[in-house]
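Record UspA domain-containing protein, 265 aa.
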Amino acid sequence: MYRRILVAIDGSFHAEAAARYAIHLAGACNAELYVVYVGGSLAGRDSLDRLVWHAEAEGIVVHGVVETGAIVSVIESIVGTEDIDLAVASTMYLSTKTVTMDLMTALPCSVLAIRVAHLGKMTYLKKILVPVIGGAWADERAYLTSKLANVFDGAVTVLHVRTISRSGFMRLTHEKKDITRAHAKRLVKDFVEALSSHDVTVETKAAIERDATDAIITEAASGNYDLILLGATRRDFLRRAIRGNTVERILRKAPCDVIVWRPAL
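=>
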């Protein structure tokens, strides 16, 4: 599914750390890798050289690209010219003012925005949490999740959160909670089945909470997860989530790495 992967770097620690994910994915997908630096700093060029060396050591066909100009325009041009399937960029937060956010709204290919919390744990991603709403884009999300799980030999937990008002929550009986949880698990059935087709063992959980973000953070912390993989099922879903501060809150509060995935437009 991913034949050509592009990772954008800027010479920073966070960008280089996020690029390690791109290298692992390229290896798992047997994909070509394009490491792109737009700028003129020595730090950026040194970072590119290190990443290219690392990818070559893993037996990956890799292209190091140094360009100047407007970052988003340059990367958008490379994505079109080289027929890129997946673009990867680092982030500490998402807002309309960040380059990563601009890439997520502009690029036609699938995009990953990655926040690395602990670089040293990247090779020990044993527990991956995947919050899912509905079954849209189940095949690609399952493919991406399976590659990450297989690379790191990690276990996957699919979490569906049903949000409910405070008054509604107070009126819920144990029987109604069980019915709601069973319904939530049916909503992620397509995704779980798609994951199973990739030989990934999946645990399914459902939570009933007043706030989806708090439920995800609580599960990530209490379960000692190493990675949260968030999916944006549509282009406008991500925009709404950011305006509502959902993704932003998870990026800021999550105790582990976070990947925000947006499928191809």
